[in-house]
Amino acid sequence: MENYQDENEFRRWLNSALQDSRGVTFLLQKRKSKWSDFDSWYLPWQDDAKDNLVLSWGVRSRNRIVKEEDLRTFSQAIISYFGERLQQAEDVLAVPPRVTAAEILYAFRYLMDDKPVRRKGWIRVQRRWVDDQLPDYELVAALKEIYVGVARIVQRAHEASGVGDCLAPAFARACVTAKIDPDLRCLGDGNPIPDGIIDANTGEMMRLSVGRMERDDSSIAVGKQRYGYVPPRGKDPLEHAEGRMELSKRFLEADGYAGPMLMLFRGMDDLRLNGLFFGSDESRELKVAATVDMQGAWPFDGAVFATEAWIGTSRNAFVDVAEEDVAASDTEFFDADPVGGRGEALVVYALMADGRYRTLMQPFARVGDGIAYGDLRDDASPGLIPPFLRPIWRRWPKWRDGPPVRP
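^ that's the sequence the OP posted. Answer follows.
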């Protein structure tokens, strides 16, 4: 990351990182006689690594570097235009490594100053290094994913040896300590060169802000007491959607609102929660795309998005309540209905890398001090999946050109 804009140094450190990470697993295999139960914990990790697109690329890349040739890496800029809600255009350009996202945006700003008519929307610029055999992932993000895999097997080797922290006497960088952190939190989220965003109407330069919350057992206990329900993981995100809908109802009844929340899954044991906030004047797809990009090269294979939505043509749509008895909607976290007079619903969308998807829609109305519910709709119609979730489908190569469409 320190040499991201120096072409030769970046490639040198990239090659070194790939060889060193592979060297760790070679060393473990060479010394497997140190552990009587080596195969019981190393072979499952090895099988999982083979199924991981990025880790298997790392093995192939190390072999290319040592036995064949240097990697074919490219410095790119991805330039995207987002309208009021959805992405409308994108282009990928080859650019010199020293060019920053801000410099590219300043060029757009210069051109915009000469245009008397402005267009509403946002221009986003992402800078990244990619390899020709791993074109969908930025390379530092790929190295982080490799580090996660290697750190976990080293951590497992420590546990099998009865060792807590690493026994090495010193470390060259503050980011690496005696305590193994598989997630490498000290490097932060996002690309090494921050994304740049410009308001196409005003010319204002903007930045996406991201917050991270660590697990807090005391807060979890308070949450269980307040909501009284923990949704089961289920066998896959489609099944998990049912528990997530039940939890959304608990949120609504206790807090007056529910969502938006994006859950990303790798299997059902590895889950990341992402809270999103959509303003009426913000591009929803831009925020979803940025959230997906913040995951780096983590290979999630399922997603669940839970939020509230406007439905129907009246405030008591699909709910057996007189319209005059329906109370006003909550505006603390959601903007007022821009159309006016519509009803409300809780919605949960579940998407999977194998092409399956599901939508749960629960109409409701606020009545006095409580909530009245209509009939739950459980549907797999493609038209119900909102277009602003397209960045999730794009992360899965099979659906890069668009989500699957069922007859």
